[in-house]
Amino acid sequence: MQQSSNPLIAAILSFVIPGAGQIYAKGFKEGFKTGVFWLIFVSVGYVFLFIPGLLLHFLCVALAFSAASSASKPLLGGFLTAIVLFAISIAILHKTLPPEAREVLSFITNSFVKPDAVDQQLTEGMEDLSEEMEDMMYVTGTPEENQKAAIAALKKYAEAEMAYMKIHKQYSNAAMDLVSAGLLSADIAKANVPAPGFDYHGYYFVHVRKQADAYVDLTTGFVICAAPIRYKVTGLYTYVVGPTGSVLAKDNGGQAVTNASEVDGTWKSN
User: Fold this and answer.
1) Residues of the chain with pLDDT under 50
2) DSSP label at residue 231
3) What is d(CA 226, CA 157) in angstroms, rounded to the nearest whole number?
4) What residues contact 61, with CB distance under 8 A and at least 6 apart?
5) 235 forms bridges with which residues in the sheet?
6) Are residues 81 and 8 in contact, defined by beta-carbon separation less than 8 angstroms?
7) How far apart are CA 216 and CA 83, in angstroms?
8) Which of 153, 155, 126, 125 has its CA nearest to residue 235?
9) Model confidence over 27-63: pLDDT tens digits?
C-alpha cells in the first residue's frame, strides 16, 4: 500500500467512480482488480435494486478511505467520511433536482424511516387515482354543460308524460315497469350510486317516491330527479321536475331526492 495516498482523496474518487479510490490507494498494478470489482459490483446493485446499490457504494467509499489511511481506526474514519460525502450529495441534490425527483428521493428515504407513513401515503394515492379514474368514466362535458343537458332531458320527459296523460288520462307506468324488471331499484335512499341505465351526461335520473313506502301515484302526478354522478365534478345542482313541467334546482350536496316532500321553497325554478 502506498503510504503517501490521501484517504480523503481516495474516498472522493470512489464516491465519484466506484473503485477508483481503491486503485489510487493501492496503485494501478495492485489495485486495478479490486477497483474493477467494486465498479461492477456497485453498478449491478444500482441497476437491479437502488438501495443495495447505494449501500454497496457507501461501503466502497469507506473501504477506499481505509485502504489509503494509516490511522489506528481507518474503517471508522472511512464510514464517517462516507456519511459526510453522501450527506453533502443529498443536500446538493435537494437544491438542484426538480420537484418530482426530490419527491421520489424523499419517498425512498421515508420508506426506511417511516414505513407506516409511506403505506398510508400509498393507500391515499391509490384512492385518489381510483377517484380520478371514476371521474374520467362519468365526465362527458363540463359541469355547466352537463347541467344544461339534465334540465333539457327533464323538460322533455315532463312533456312526454303530459302528452301521455292527455291520451290515456294517467301518466305512464314506465317507472313501475322498470322496478318490476329490476332495472330501477325500489330503494333509492342510497343515491350515491348511479341507477343502472339512467346515467346521462354526468347525471343519473330516478323516479322520486311521494311517500316513504311507495312511489308517486301515477294517476295524480310524478316527480323525476336528476342528480350529479360526481358532485362538483359532473355537476353541482340536483334537479326535479313534476307534472307542471317546471324544473326546480338546488345544491343538494349531490344527493338525489328520495321523497317528494323534500322539494320545498328552497328549490329555485330554472
Assistant:
1) 1-2, 176-179, 181-197, 211-215
2) B
3) 11
4) 11, 14, 15, 21, 78, 81, 82, 85, 86
5) 231
6) yes
7) 75
8) 153
9) 888 888 888 998 898 888 888 777 778 888 889 998 8
Count of Cβ atoms closer than 10 Å to residue 86 Cβ:
15
Return the C-alpha cell found at 1. Answer: 500500500
Beta bridge partners of residue 204, listed in sequence order = 199, 227
69 backbone dihedrals φ, ψ, rounded to 5°: -100, 145
Helix (H) or strand (E) holding 199: strand 199-200
The number of residues making up the chain comes to 270
Cα angle, residue 3 at apex, residues 25 and 89 outer, rounded to 5°: 40
Q: What SS3 class is residue 104?
A: helix
CB distance 198 to 263 below 8 Å: no
Whole-number pLDDT of residue 160: 76
Q: Which amino acid is at 41?
A: F
